[in-house]
Write a structure and sequence with these properties.
CATH architecture: 3-Layer(aba) Sandwich
Oligomer: single chain
Helix content: 40-55%
Shape: globular
Number of strands: 5
CATH class: Alpha Beta
Structural class: alpha/beta
Largest sheet: 5 strands, parallel
Radius of gyration: 14 Å
Strand order of the largest sheet: 2-1-3-4-5
Distance between the termini: 16 Å
Number of domains: 1
Amino acid sequence: MNKPQEVLLIDDDPSFITAIKPVLESRGYQVEAAYNKQEAIEKIEKSKPDLILLDIMMERLTDGFDICCKLKQDPEFKTIPILAVSAINKEIGMKFSPKTDGEYFPADDFLEKPVKPENLLERVEKLLKV
């Protein structure tokens, strides 16, 4: 029996995690949650999830960006697909950088909140090549 694919939800909004977690679990994914940058880094290093669903605008504006950049620069973690979510639109979100103008948010895909379950599942399955 194959181990279910693990999705890590990173968002400082518990209501978003509460809404999205059952949608993913209904498709057989094992879902973990992290509510801040430190907890996210610890869970990523411990379990190396198959996919990360990351809110780019958390408590500190730079947290989502920092997590994404750290992962994409680390050979051990750079292959983990990151699906970024945010209440800001994709064009602004993907160009978002609190540090340097013109630096792109290095996520693999982007969804605008509010997230529709069918759009979320389509993107997750595409990134996981299901």
